[in-house]
Amino acid sequence: QVQLVESGGGLVQAGGSLRLSCAASGRTFSNNAMGWFRQAPGREREFVAAITWSGGTTVYTDSVKGRFTISRDNAKNTVYLQMNSLKPEDTAVYYCAADGDWRRTNGIQLRTAFVYNYWGQGTQVTISS
Fold first, then answer.
1. pLDDT at residue number 56
2. How far apart are CA 72 and CA 98, in angstroms?
3. What's the Cα-to-Cα distance from 116 to each of 44, 92, 110, rounded to whole Å?
4. Is 29 in a helix, a strand, or coil?
5. 63 three-class SS
6. How confident is the model over 63-77, as pLDDT tens digits?
7. CA 32/CA 4 separation, integer angstroms
């Protein structure tokens, strides 16, 4: 059974940092792109960041560029999201996702939820002002 399990969420003050982790089990995703999405109350799920299978390409939504960094450790089957300079508007449930296709590198496609076949349960991130 394939599972993606997020961890690292919590409550921090504005300007603080958090590091989210997403550990995959049940299969290896070393040849698959991985992504992070988030959903705030009353809003649709939105793309945050993605990383290609090798880690050679990363893409971000504009609102997190320069503040968030996505990375991966294929040996550990884990993807990370380092979040710095957090703002109250970053408050959301953050979801990890794995692309079902082999070695997809199209950054435009990786911004869309439909390319991701596997999803975690999410971790709450709350930023206080």
1. 93
2. 12
3. 16, 19, 8
4. coil
5. helix
6. 999 999 999 999 999
7. 13
The encoded tokens of residue 103 equal 């070695």
For 23, the token pair is 């550990």
Q: How far is CA 32 from CA 21, 78, 92, 95, 100, in A?
A: 17, 12, 25, 16, 7
Rounded CA gap, 42 and 105, in Å? 31
Per-residue b or e along 86-122, where b marks 16 or more CB atoms closer than 10 Å to that residue's CB? beeebbbbbbbbbbeeeebeeeeebbeeebbebbbeb
Mean pLDDT of 1-14: 97
Average per-residue pLDDT for the chain: 97
- Which residue type, as a one-letter code, is found at position 54? S
Closest C-alpha to 109, from 65, 37, 50, 56: 50
